[in-house]
Amino acid sequence: MAFAELAVNTPVLRPGSFSYSIPLGLEIKPGQAVWAPFGPKIVQGIVLEVSDQPAFGQTREICGVISDTPLLSFHQLNLAAWISQTYLCSIYEALSPMLPPSFERRSVAYISLEPSPLNKSEKPPATLSPSLQKIFDWLQTRDITPQTELENIFGKKTTQTAIPKLINQGLINRTYQISPVRTQTKFEKHFGLSEQALAFIKDQTLTKLSPRQTEVFECLRENPQGISKSRLNLLVKNNAAILKSLEKKELILTEEHQVFRQPIDYSHIETLPHLKLSPPQEKCLESINRSLNTPPEDDQNPRTFLLHGITGSGKTEIYLQALAEALRLGKKAIVLVPEISLTPQTIARFAGRFPGRVAVLHSRLSPGEQFDEWQRIKN
């Protein structure tokens, strides 16, 4: 049997990991996200390592996988371990900023009456206090209720005190369910002509279509690579019934294509060339590029550079050309902007220099945009 060390998504500020056994037939790799039991709950966990022996003797089994492939690399796992030890936080707290936006899903507590000889029509024991009686009476009118709903009605402190007492008396049951996914990959329908339709066109044997069907058919014919549902809606209004009829005639194909929610509109961004550097700028860039091209173990000089200069002295241009060298070497780069208000002008400058290669992450993006940008950076 194999075992995994997990960093789990719980408030417990334990600096280390938790040991779990891996069920037979379940393949798990470091960096992968999984579901694991923790007390009465099911929580998210990140696999830190897989081994033949657990770090602790008694283990529980992993419930299943969240991601089929690792979300984090070995480098990120090692970085999180260093952050945890250096800043005295849990490993999961160190890992969480590296995970996809909206990744976190918590266990939600649900309360229901305990199936027992005590039917809804029967009275509960007379030992219940007025506050317990109110909650119990309210639950008798429901099948299952989120605990948060009870807290909103009867007060958080009263509810959290009452529920354990009602559970101990065998009157209610508390179960946990995972909160729904908040953000995921977006897909959109794509339409194109079928092989049969193309053969009919070639042989000039296409059956007669209605004017509306002909309008949609010609639109698809003019777009041999296919056309998205949203674009087709702009060209032909109220097309749902027409598409269905063409699909029934086996003249069109329907596919699901992934849609990237793109926060950068390149249609208004002009592609910009590198500017000619002044001698001081060239000297700075030469030092940075030399460091980029030297393996860390062979570089005896400091690998951190601070450019000092007044506004407009050309610091950003050095950054841009240093980024170009990093990309040429197959590396990536992160640019930090001090204010969100500065982001649009910064995006225009960097995206103009590196078209299609700039990803943006900040709090004003929608959850979907953040999710897609994270995926673009990872891939």
TrEMBL record:
Q: Which UniProt keywords apply?
A: ATP-binding, DNA-binding, Nucleotide-binding
Magnesium as UniProt keyword: no
Share an example GO biological-process annotation for this protein: DNA recombination
Per the record, the domain of life is: Bacteria
Q: How is this protein named in the record? A: Primosomal protein N
* Residue stretches making up the Helicase ATP-binding domain: 296-379
Instruction: List GO molecular-function terms, semicolon-separated.
Output: 3'-5' DNA helicase activity; ATP binding; DNA binding; hydrolase activity
Known Pfam families for this protein? PriA_3primeBD, ResIII
Q: Which organism is it from?
A: Dehalococcoides mccartyi
Q: Which InterPro entries match?
A: Helicase/UvrB_N (IPR006935), Helicase_ATP-bd (IPR014001), P-loop_NTPase (IPR027417), PriA_3primeBD (IPR041222), PriA_3primeBD_sf (IPR042115)
